[in-house]
């Protein structure tokens, strides 16, 4: 058969590539050193190329690929399991590496655009055969990805930074309501705050198709906001607009920007609950709230307590401002999660505020998520928590931390596969999150995949060198590997009570009684200055094989509502206790199966 009569697989007839040429190129790629070691990616690429050659484009949907390539069942839910999107991202990166390396002299390109599972085929000539496509035409709306960078403060007052951050965050929040749109979470997008960056590099690091940038100039009651959208693959501007309005119009401007982005990607932002006529009081509440949110994101005990003071003042002045109530519950939850306070001591305020926030605005994915976290970690009502998480994702499909919260609740019940899937979804939306890397490491540690756990911990440290959660998991991992010297190396300088407890256990396993006792003394001294969860001494007691004391301290930790104790059923550190008849009693208190 001559090449003129072969099936052609390009939408542009002037640039058509015969099917045999595509098949030959596919064979080169999958047999190359970069691909041959990855059977999963080879299977994925072969499947989508062959289906395209045979014109079966209808089968190149996320559900069909999950079932046919990744062996998922008919119960597969793409909102919970991000396997196809994650592997598509890996495939795009691997193809890029191939064409920059061994395939740089190949004459046929096989590519995969972001947001699409239909591959593209074209000739790689020294001179391009056609003019570039219209800007933005390559972005497929089905799974487009958007990152909103922090808007730049153009005012003379540096205190306005928080106001600019609040505008960016609210645009992110509005975009998360759009079904089919992947919205990069604040924690990843804000990694670029204050940096002069190349849009293409931002797109690569965040796996984003479109980046939104902007600036804010606030002078008295006058507001000037400039926003622009750029395509990351080419760096070309897609849209820009300047809004010169009164301060009271800030909410309308945020919504207009979000709607413009949805329009660019041919996606529709649902109609949200209309805001009543904006008053000076609304603006004051909003301004106070975004300032407190910045403090919560910093997650140190000092900033969390400062945020609580500000939010308590806020609800005194504005008793119907729903986000402030959820913010109080969240700040208290962070304090308890990291062991700065007893969960029992903040439980009453958490319960009152989280339920009040939800009652005031049950249509918010945020209020649903925070209430779900409270139900799961402090009331052990996980079935109700899952219903709230599902509601949150229905309201705001792009809310990263809903996936994260849900994943960790599932892990408490031993559903490791579902926890992994949820964290993959969270990472897809929050790719520069040290927390997600650390928690993925923890899941791998629980399942016994220690090399992967160590790799994930290092990735977490790459994003945040001093991230305490990653350091704690590193200590647990090394203890499990019986690398007690490694535990000492990574935890000996820490003042975190859980770290000190694990350190004492490591010293005990080295038969170094004196430094183990010193660790216990350090915990006693800390307890005179701050709250120390009994769980810290439970770690030490297990290492010292004082199992009666370990059970006593674990009971106390449950009474104190120490969040980490929810993982008792799966935490390998407590394996020596599992054969004891008292262990199922502990699990029952946490509403966990024995």
Structural class comes to: alpha/beta
Low-confidence stretches: 1-14, 126-142, 274-279
Rg, nearest Å = 26 Å
Total helical elements: 26
| Number of strand elements | 8
Could you name the key traits of this structure?
594 residues, alpha/beta, six-stranded mixed beta sheet, two-stranded antiparallel sheet, 26 helices, 8 strands, disordered N terminus
Protein model, in words:
With 594 residues, the chain is of the alpha/beta class. The protein contains 26 helices and 8 strands. The protein has helices spanning 19-30, 33-36, 39-53, 62-68, 83-100, 161-175, 186-189, 199-206, 250-264, 280-298, 301-317, 322-337, 343-360, 365-378, 382-395, 400-412, 416-429, 434-447, 450-463, 468-480, 484-491, 497-509, 513-527, 534-544, 547-559, 582-589, and strands at 108-111, 120-123, 145-148, 152-153, 182-183, 210-219, 222-231, 237-246. Strands 3, 4, 5, 6, 7 and 8 form a 6-stranded mixed beta sheet that branches. A hairpin with a 5-residue loop joins strand 7 (222-231) and strand 8 (237-246). Helix 24 runs antiparallel to helix 25. The radius of gyration is 26 Å and the shape is globular.
């Amino acid at each position: 058969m001559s090449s003129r009569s072969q099936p052609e697989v390009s939408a542009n007839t002037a640039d058509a590539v015969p099917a045999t040429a595509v098949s030959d190129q596919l064979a080169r790629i999958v047999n190359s050193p970069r691909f041959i070691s990855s059977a999963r990616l080879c299977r994925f690429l072969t499947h989508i190329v062959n289906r395209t050659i045979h014109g079966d484009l209808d089968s190149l949907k996320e559900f069909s690929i999950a079932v046919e390539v990744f062996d998922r069942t008919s119960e597969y839910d793409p909102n919970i399991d991000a396997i196809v999107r994650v592997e598509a991202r890996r495939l795009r990166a691997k193809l890029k590496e191939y064409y920059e390396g061994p395939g740089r002299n190949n004459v046929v390109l096989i590519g995969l655009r972001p947001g699409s599972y239909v591959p593209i085929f074209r000739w790689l000539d020294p001179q391009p055969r056609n003019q570039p496509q219209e800007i933005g035409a390559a972005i497929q709306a089905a799974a487009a990805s958007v990152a909103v960078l922090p808007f730049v403060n153009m005012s003379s007052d540096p205190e306005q930074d928080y106001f600019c951050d609040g505008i960016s965050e609210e645009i992110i929040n509005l975009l998360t309501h759009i079904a089919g749109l992947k919205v990069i979470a604040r924690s990843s997008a804000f990694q670029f705050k204050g940096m002069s960056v190349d849009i293409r590099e931002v797109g690569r690091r965040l796996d984003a198709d479109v980046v939104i940038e902007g600036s804010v100039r606030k002078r008295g009651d006058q507001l000037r906001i400039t926003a622009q959208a750029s395509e990351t693959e080419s760096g070309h501007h897609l849209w820009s607009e300047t809004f010169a309005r009164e301060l009271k119009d800030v909410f309308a401007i945020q919504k207009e920007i979000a709607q413009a982005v949805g329009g660019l990607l041919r996606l529709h932002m649902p109609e949200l609950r209309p805001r009543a006529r904006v008053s000076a009081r609304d603006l004051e509440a909003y301004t106070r709230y975004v300032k407190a949110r910045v403090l919560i994101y910093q997650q140190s005990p000092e900033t969390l307590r400062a945020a609580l003071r500000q939010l308590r003042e806020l609800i005194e002045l504005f008793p119907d401002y729903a986000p402030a109530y959820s913010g109080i519950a969240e700040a208290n939850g962070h304090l308890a999660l990291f062991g700065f306070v007893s969960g029992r001591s903040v439980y009453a305020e958490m319960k009152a505020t989280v339920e009040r926030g939800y009652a005031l605005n049950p249509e918010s994915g945020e209020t649903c998520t925070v209430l779900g976290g409270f139900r799961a970690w402090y009331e052990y009502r996980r079935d109700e928590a899952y219903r709230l998480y599902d509601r949150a994702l229905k309201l705001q499909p792009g809310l990263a931390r809903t996936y994260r919260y849900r994943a960790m609740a599932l892990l408490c019940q031993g559903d490791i596969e579902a926890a992994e899937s949820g964290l993959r979804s969270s990472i897809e939306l929050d790719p520069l999150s040290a927390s997600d890397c650390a928690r993925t490491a923890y899941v791998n540690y629980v399942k016994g995949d220690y090399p992967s756990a160590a790799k994930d911990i290092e990735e977490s440290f790459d994003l945040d060198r001093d991230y305490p959660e990653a350091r704690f998991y590193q200590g647990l991992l090394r203890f499990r590997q019986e690398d007690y010297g490694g535990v000492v190396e990574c935890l000996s300088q820490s003042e975190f009570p859980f770290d000190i407890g694990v350190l004492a256990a490591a010293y005990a396993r080295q038969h170094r009684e004196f430094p183990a006792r010193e660790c216990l003394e350090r915990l006693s001294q800390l307890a005179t200055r701050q709250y120390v969860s009994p769980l810290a001494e439970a770690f030490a007691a297990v290492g010292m094989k004082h199992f009666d004391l370990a059970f006593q301290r674990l009971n106390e930790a449950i009474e104190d509502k120490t969040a980490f104790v929810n993982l008792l059923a799966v935490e390998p550190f407590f394996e020596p206790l599992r054969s004891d008849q008292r262990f199922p009693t502990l699990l029952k208190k946490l509403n966990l199966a024995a």
